[in-house]
Amino acid sequence: MDWKSLIDAMERLAAAAPAAKDMLDLQAQIDMAYWAKWMFWASIGSLSVSLVAIVAAFSSLRASREAAADSRKAAADSREVGEFQTQAYVHARSARLGTKGNVIIACKNSGLTPATHFSVNATAKIVSPGNVAASISFKTDGFKTWSALGANDELTVSILDGDPVVSQFARTQGGDDKLLVSGQITYCTIFNHDHVTQFAFYAEPRTKHRFRRPTASLTTFSRIPEQGFPSPQSELPVLLTDNDEDDANVTARG
Questions:
Q1: CA dihedral 142, 148, 151, 153 (to 10 degrees)
Q2: Which of 115, 119, 179, 232 has the fewest CB atoms nearer than 10 Å to its CB?
Q3: Alpha carbon 81 to chain centroid, angstroms
Q4: Alpha-carbon gap, residue 14 to 186, rounded angstroms
């Protein structure tokens, strides 16, 4: 090889070097773009997995809260049902005239647990025939209180002691006007909830010691709201005319 040929070869090699460098730079850029694309998709995939995990965590938390709320509600419902099944249920079973111008009421607890205490009030009216149920009314004061009334126990209590209306009726020898005694029993269960039961009885002059129940819509075993005693009712809806049968049922309302 002569020197001229060697020089020509070296010149061609030198001339080709920039082009080769450009090709290497281009290949490097292509490689970087390729790996950048996969890194981008890898980042997107990682972000998607993270988002799915976050959504799953929130869903699990919400499900846990809902399950806890459902569990608390079920427990509360179970306690409420248990309370309804076992609580005290106090009502006036019967009434009769006392010997001192008073009225004797037999209060009975038909529940499975005691009433911690109970109170009774009443009003007495002389009413005309056919007007008994429409004359029923209640007041929210004048209660007399007694101590605990055990489960399935009965206690007779005296109300309207010395009441002039009762005394007048006791002295009446004839006539058609009737004595109407209506009142309310409030009582507290062992679950510390106050309840109210209303009652109404009437008697005729010819059978003074035989009290009957008028057919009327009365509140029975109703829980008293926390904000206080319900407002007094001056009248109750009349379902039928006066009931002349013994121990006619009182229809419960509430």
A1: -70
A2: 232
A3: 11
A4: 115
